[in-house]
Amino acid sequence: MACCFAALAGCAGGLQKVVRSPPPNTQLTTAFVYPFAFRWENEPSYRPFEMSQRLIDVGIEVAGNRLAFYGPSEFKVMRANDDSAWVATNALPLLLASGSRPDQGVVIRPWAEKREGNSSQETSDAKGRSRGAGQSMEMSYLGHLEIVHPSSREVLVELTGEVKVDPFSAPTDEDEYDPAKALTHLMESLMRKALAELTEYAPERNSSSAPFPYVLALTPKTALAYQGDSQTAFETTALGKLDALEADLVQQSRARFACRTLSDLDAAKAVRLPPGLLVVEIPAEGSKLSKGDVLLQIDQDPALPQRLARQWLTGLPVQVKVRKAGGGETEVVLP
């Protein structure tokens, strides 16, 4: 099996990339994105979910007309490091139910390490006399992303990149809702580069379908209700221990992480909404949805961006259950 290695510029510490060809005549249709693995302690239970969802958003943007994506809340991972994912997860029945063969699916495994250390620098005056030493904390993130072909047990793409965190950089609005924005940007870049390697093995599908006309955002309760293998849902444990203001701020920050363009007003409204997809923007004409509506279910399953994208990929009408901004619930068929 062909293999190539390249070290590329683009990340603060460069990018290491390994690409292998899948078996001959492979035509990929589906990608299962594992919960993001933080290789350090004390990350809240919603973080593996929301980081993977951010990568799924990138996947839909880059390859949504080629691949159907599934996220962490839709399948269970029993053994995260096993390359035979069809026995290490319960993803295979979902793949088969979609009409695809086992050899048409891949799994995407993202994870990161954090490196911390102290450094000291000796300072002196104009005459060379010592003025003492200054101490500073150095930190960097090492991001990894693998795309595995379970049927052949081949790791098709391996990407690793490192980014250093500047402790003296000016804070931005993004710092309010992303505790590791440098890592987030790094992983988004790795996801784009990894999917670009699969283009020739994932034919374009339903190219005649118009882009989805609405802008949607996951409500914060979707992430806060996520329960991983070793952690309980943040919503049922830690959230209740916060005072009302702190709990509100946590939920607003998770709403803004899910949708960076969300206004402060919409983020404040999202806190009070049930799990689902908030309609943030609508097309100018002929809209069946209104701003402020919440998609609760898509074809009777919980509303998630990738679930909607999968339905859109088929080109068939999508039935959604909607909580209207003005009150009440209804059923809508899109488009």
Walk me through this protein's architecture:
The relative contact order is 0.15. This protein is an alpha+beta fold and 335 residues long. The strands form 2 sheets. Strands 1, 2, 3, 4, 5, 6, 7 and 8 form an 8-stranded mixed sheet that branches. It starts with a strand and ends with a strand. The protein contains 8 helices and 14 strands. It has 2 domains: 3-117 and 133-201, TolB, N-terminal domain (Rossmann fold), CATH 3.40.50.10070; 215-334, Pdz3 Domain, CATH 2.30.42. 24% of the residues lie in helices and 30% in strands.
According to DSSP, the number of beta strands is 14
CATH superfamily of the largest domain: TolB, N-terminal domain
- The proportion of residues in beta strands is 25-35%
Q: Kindly provide the name of the CATH class of the largest domain.
A: Alpha Beta
Query: What CATH architecture label of the largest domain applies?
Result: 3-Layer(aba) Sandwich
| Rg, alpha carbons | 22 Å
Tally of DSSP helical segments: 8
Unreliable runs, pLDDT <50, ≥5 residues? 1-12
Structural class: alpha+beta
- The rounded distance between the terminal residues' Cα atoms is 43 Å
Layout of strands and helices, then pairs:
Layout: E1 3-8, E2 15-20, E3 30-33, E4 37-38, H1 46-63, E5 68-70, H2 85-88, H3 91-97, E6 105-124, E7 130-149, E8 154-165, H4 181-196, E9 215-218, H5 220-224, H6 244-258, H7 264-270, E10 277-281, E11 294-298, E12 301-302, H8 305-314, E13 318-323, E14 329-334
Parallel strand pairs: 3-5, 3-6, 4-6
Antiparallel strand pairs: 1-2, 2-8, 6-7, 7-8, 9-10, 10-11, 11-12, 11-13, 13-14
Helix pairs in contact: 1-4, 6-7
